[in-house]
Amino acid sequence: MRNARVIGGACTLGLCAALHLGNAFGSPATPVAPAVPASAHAVTAGPPAATIPFEKYKLPNGLTVILHSDRSLPLVAVNVWYHVGPANEPAHRSGFAHLFEHLMFEGSKHVGHEFDHVLESIGATNSNGTTSWDRTDYFETAPSENLELLLWLESDRMGFMIDTLTQERLDVQRDVVKNERRQSYENAPYGPSSLAMLNTLFPEGHPYNGAVIGSMQDLTSASLADVQEFFHQYYAPSNATLCIAGDLDVPQAKALIARYFGTLVDRKRPEAKLTPYAPLPKAERLVIKEPVNLAQVSFGYRTPPAYSADDPAVEVAMAVLGGGKATRLYQRLVVQTKLAADVSANLESNQVSSIAQVSATVATGKSSSAVEHELDAVLSGLAKSGPTPAELERAKRRILVDVLSDLELLNGSGGESGRAGLLQRFDQYTGDPGHLPKWLAQIEHVSAADVQRVVKESLKPEARVVVITEAQAEATAGASK
To answer: Where is 57: in which H helix or E strand?
Structure first.
């Protein structure tokens, strides 16, 4: 969950989307000829080669370091991932990882409480923190002469943030998070429906139960001792990865990393609390009344984990369904039947289980039952016949363009995009920061039969949650406490 601390905008490097980014550590971005076809039978060329040169190593205290050098612009991005999210939270402590996303901006022993002011004073951009199901991260981009300052800031909060945390500061940030929950869910259009979807997909006992932001009850009951214990367990060098991307002298960067992070206390990395992937055991159906103008129909599914064998095929299937005016959902529900005001199809790939969701906002004067019927028809048609060659090609190109656009950034807006974010994401989920070319090759090799199969297996009616949001005239009584 992204917090509201954004300083400036994202740093763009202006690279052509189809550039090859080098195949040796430290080499600058260099345009090359298009890649050869993926196979001798391919009608069109495969995706352009897209690699992010990097070096990966570990400090004696367990901190993983990933370096990507590009001297083309005098900018440097720092991106720190802590391998802790809702999947790691103890029972009745939901929301702790996201709470820490906020607490880590509260200050640390040697830096004090002016993180934002320090970053603003050096012209830092895109400074933020985010939390997802499996990790929490902090990132910023600044002129490269400030690398040492950025490393000092990040190392101080990694090692000494908890030294300055008081009950008063915990209470302030707890209230900020609870207010964020109200604004994002309880009091937001379709927010209660979104929470109901997540809590039904991941009921109590599942590692993802409680949503990323956590429950009001768990946030309220969190004590200072609980928070201190959580910090000491998960916010340690051995449970973190530091990625630096941009204009950096590698030997100098390594010396600075050793100076600022090498002396931090080594603590044993906690064991991952992983649950084997399983689809939803049965279909669920919910009707949620909300003070909205238009009804909405949403289908939610558990799908295979990030970068597992079927994850690329689900990714392509969702791009066939939604994401543009030429896609099946838009054409069927918005253009042809005019039943929906808008449609969407999204995939969030995670370690324990990915989340696929198909939604349509019901057009004025139309019925939610008609929209639900058409959503079913679109999915059934894709399961029956698979995508056309044109649909398949368009979906793959859309995914490719999105990835190549990410490569123009050092740090993206959400911590998982940009070159630093991609290196971190691939390292977290595959153990290989350089997994990008392999993943793009998997996308390119997805066939129409693959899409057809995963729609039948992973997007089937008997293993989904259907949430119908019904419009009501008046706001619900009482706000969440």
So the answer is: strand 55-58
CATH, range 284-471:
3.30.830.10
State how far the Cα of 320 lies from the Cα of 322, in Å rounded to an integer: 6
What pLDDT score does 291 carry?
95
Strand ranges (E), 203-294: 240-246, 284-290
- Residue 242 CA to residue 222 CA, distance in Å, equals 28
The helix (run of H) or strand (run of E) holding residue 150 is helix 147-160
Q: Where are the domains of the chain?
A: 55-261, 284-471
Which helix (H) or strand (E) element contains residue 343? strand 340-348
pTM for this model (two decimals): 0.87
Could you please state the CATH topology (level 3) that the domain comprising 55-261 is classified under: Cytochrome Bc1 Complex; Chain A, domain 1 (3.30.830)
**Tens digits of residue pLDDT in 119-138:** 999 999 989 999 999 999 99
**Which run of H or E residues covers position 143?**
strand 136-143
Report the distance separating Cα 100 and Cα 27, nearest Å. Answer: 37
Averages of pLDDT over each 10 residues, the chain, 481 residues? 31 28 32 32 47 96 97 97 91 88 87 88 92 95 97 95 91 92 93 96 90 89 91 94 97 98 90 84 96 97 97 98 94 98 97 97 97 98 97 96 93 92 97 96 97 97 98 56 42
Torsion angle, alpha carbons of 240, 23, 258, 140, to 10? -60
Dihedral pair phi/psi, residue 55, rounded to 5°: -130, 135
CA distance 33 to 86: 44
Question: Euclidean distance between the first and final Cα of the chain, in Å?
Answer: 20
Measured CA to CA, the distance from residue 332 to residue 50 in angstroms comes to 35
